[in-house]
Specification:
The protein is an alpha+beta fold. It has 7 helices and 12 strands. The protein has a 4-stranded antiparallel β-sheet with strand order 2-1-6-7. It has a 4-stranded mixed β-sheet with strand order 5-8-9-10, sandwiched between helices.
Length: 253
Amino acid sequence: MGQSMDAARPRPASVGRVTTWTFRLAGGPTAWDWTLGPPDPRALLSIRTPRSTEKSRHIPVQAHSVTLSGSIRVESGLEHDLVRELDRDPNVVWMVSQPVRLSLATAHSKARVHTPDLLVLDRDGAVTIWDVRPPEKQDEKFNLVRDLTKAACEQVGWAYRVYGGAPPVHRHNIRWITAYRRPMPWYPNARAELLAICASPGATVGSVLEADRGAGHLTSAMWHYVWAGLLRIDLDQPLHRESPIAVADRDLD
């Protein structure tokens, strides 16, 4: 009787499992044996190369990355937005697009093949797998793949996140400061003056503009150091002369 009641008791459904992780290394695609430990993220190549056709929903582009000191191929504008966000994160040290092909299976559905959008390595060696999908397109099919991928990553000690985009103001501000990401020769010389201005109580973008005297060196350096995180400004608000600006809590090497 006890065994019968136990058998009738509802059990939590298994989220799923990964039957295969396929990475592309220098020698070509490899079904990874996790008993050997994880692969070296820096050795991974994109498992596939997105191509644009007349029926494509997105146009793949080569996006420049300061983190990589080179380019990374992304499939959509939303993926490019994520790369811009991660590229200015000092904890991010490496990125790979379309990093793995997962063969996912559940007890109640056929196997699914899924290629996440991005793999990110941080300075502590932690790995995060990203999927990029706007909220209005996160349907039941996507949510199933999301849950399976999340469970797969947890099984191997990797993190998993979904990026759905940022509000328009934040997105436009990130694009603006990204235009100043490239270091210029005069930035180091402008740094001390910028810090002094922005450390003053009540400092604003206008304070820097007024100190620039039309030369442009302080203004461009200001946007560069906002991008780099040395200066702090609220990127969720429209940028104007009255926008408060301050020295960030952390410093740059």
